[in-house]
Each structure stands twice: as C-alpha cells, then as structure tokens.
Amino acid sequence: GESVGLHLPTLSVQEGDNSIINCAYSNSASDYFIWYKQESGKGPQFIIDIRSNMDKRQGQRVTVLLNKTVKHLSLQIAATQPGDSAVYFCAEPSRGSYIPTFGRGTSLIVHP
Amino acid sequence: DADVTQTPRNRITKTGKRIMLECSQTKGHDRMYWYRQDPGLGLRLIYYSFDVKDINKGEISDGYSVSRQAQAKFSLSLESAIPNQTALYFCATSDLPTSGGGVDTQYFGPGTRLTVL
What we know:
The complex is a heterodimer of chains A (112) and B (117). With 112 residues, chain A is mainly beta. Chain A contains no helices and 10 strands. Residues 1-5 of chain A have low confidence and may be disordered. With 117 residues, chain B is mostly beta strands. Chain B contains no helices and 11 strands. Chain B has strands spanning 4-7, 10-13, 19-25, 31-37, 43-51, 54-57, 64-70, 73-78, 87-94, 106-108, 112-116. In chain B, the strands form 2 sheets. In chain B, strands 2, 4, 5, 6, 9, 10 and 11 form a 7-stranded mixed β-sheet that branches. Chain B has a 4-stranded antiparallel β-sheet with strand order 1-3-8-7, with no helix packed on it. Classes of the chains: A mainly beta (112), B mainly beta (117). The A-B interface holds A 1-2, 4-8, 30-34, 41-46, 49, 51-52, 89, 91-93, 98-100, 102-105 and B 1, 4, 33, 39-45, 48, 59-60, 90, 92, 97, 100-111.
C-alpha cells in the first residue's frame, strides 16, 4: 500500500465559510466516485456520489465537481457548520472491481 | 450506523494472543468487508465476502483470517496478534451495485479499536 506520513491534510475554516476538499484519483477509467464523511469515533458514512458522465452533482449543502481531464474531484460544503468537522474520503472503484479504493482523507476543522 | 454492529468496541491484548472481532448486520446485504484504518492512512481492505460461501483476500490479509457464519455475520480473527496490528478495524456491508453504479456503496460499523501490547 501507499506509504504516507502520519498526518492527514487538514483544512481549517470558520463557521459559515464555504469549504472545498480536494481529491486526486488514479484510474482514468473510473466511472463512479463516492465521498464519505467520518466523524470522530464513528465509521465512514456516505455523503454523495457522482458518475463519470457528470461534471457536477449537488446535494443538500454539498456539491461534488469532477474534472476528468486532470483526474480531480472536489467536495464543496456551503455555509460550513461545526457538525461538518470530520475526515472526508473520496473513493473510486478498484481496477476490475466494484470494491472502492479510498483516498487518505482530509480532516476538516470548523471553528465556531 | 446501528444497522452494522461491531463487538468489541475496544480491546487491549498482548502479543501472541488470538483475537476475534465480530460484525453483525441487519441490512440484509450479501456483501461484507473488513477494513483496517491507521492514523494518516485511508481504509485498507483485509478480507471481503460476497456471500456466505465466498471469501476473498484483500490488500493486507497476511496475519488475519475471516469466517462468514451467516449472511448477517462476518468475523475477523488475528491468530497471533502483533503490535503492528494495533489499529482501528471497520466492518462494512454493501448491496449489489445499482444499475449504472460502478462502485459499491458501503455502510460501515462504528469500528473496533484494537491495541496489541
């Protein structure tokens, strides 16, 4: 597996600001992506997904953007709230499988 | 997610001990997974099972074994625990991918924090 440092990328924002969390994926053939949110002491939870035939998908306060040219996903959270503090993971399918491969994650810290 | 439960939630054990982590689900899903999470790293797949008679190794299966006792139960065993198996362990379930979906949407349990001294 990937060897990385012990510290997650961290994004600190003020309550009410918009947050943008980025994710680079590895497989240009990936056709579906999911964002998960993991709160402290809990397992990851599904937030939103996007298919590769879309550039943008909106949910409640969240928007995911997909740029297939540079293999980049972003998760935008509008009017960030303290309850949004968590680690956010993007996931793409493993090669030849429906099983997801997870990114390292980004820690979002929301200051009141 | 209360639909996926894990026991124990925390466990401290000693090197060389055999440990079993249990997972139960009420979601009716056929697919179950065990992941390991270490600080600063993403989730790494240990084993997965697509139905009761199906067991598959994941990315990091060495030192682990699993048993799929029923559709709803999937247990992970460490035959002889070692300190570098100290980690957070998650069980997950998924249904068959929906039409047009290219990756399983997984539902995770609350995790088991395992410490091997």
